[in-house]
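note to self — DONT lose this again. spent like an hour looking for the file last time. sequence + predicted structure for the chain T wanted, 337 res
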Amino acid sequence: MQKIAVNIVRYNHPFALIRDCIRATLSQDIDNYTVTLTENGSGDSIEQEALTEFGDNPKFAYWDNGANLGFAGAHNLFISQSEAEIVVPLNPDTKMTPGYLGLLAEVFSDPKVGAATGKMLRFERDADGSFVLDGTGIEVSRARRGRERGQLQVDRRQFDNLRQIFGVSGTAPAYRKSALEKIRLFQREYFDEDFFAYWEDLDLSWRLRLAGYECVYVPDAVIYHSRAVGKSKGGYRHPLEFVRHHHQFPVRILQWNWRNHLFCILKNDFGWSLWRDFPFILCREFLMLCYIVAFERRTLGAMPEFFRLLPAMLRKRRLIKKSRVVNSMEIGKWFVG
């Protein structure tokens, strides 16, 4: 089996949370893998606790970046230095079931597969004790709204027969390292470091698909996730709940979310499918802007950053275009609903 390298990035997460994540990851039913805990500029240190707990395990390693490089930068540094064929950026608020890594690794026997993910479940169950889905891969609408398939639905195995997906969430994905090298921008930019956080997973999946790789969902690979940011119950159909839900988020998260979804479209969208869906995109963006002006004006603080980064995004768009092998009609089949 190909060697797998897991990277858990910590930023001020409590040791109890990190410990549960590492324990589950070190308890996989395969042998050929490593687990690295990467400190990313936290205000405190858990190095001694981590090494006391896991330092004797030959699969475990500890690394300190010395600064907050963001989600993208921290994982990019790890991926660039890794010699594993499969790399797994892993959120610290997750808990793998024992077969997670092995089941994901199996699908990479197909050379077309560039990324894979499993079934993400919430830790909390529904009122009747049923499992609740956190996500089963990323889907993208004709308006270019990216979202986790099935999020907040009760798991009734309704997604268990679906294998092909548009993209994989950054929560617990597995990537083929050689595929990431083919779509890498600049020296080590796999995830877009200008995004800092949020939407970099959709952007990376989009670029993999444009380069001809497939993204696969493995329903038998199960992982639990405690999501801090997700959609509200009922979404747009319950406006008051939607507004209340979004007002819980820090302003930087709102700004990154709005700015980066625009960058995803700007960098990757093109051709016939873009013009076909342009009315849907324009309508959604207009309504979103109206919502922001009415209820979340602090999000508009992202506009200076957007224009400052715009030349860099246009440069990256030109680089992505050079490595693109999929035509607009083929990629357009993924934009539905």
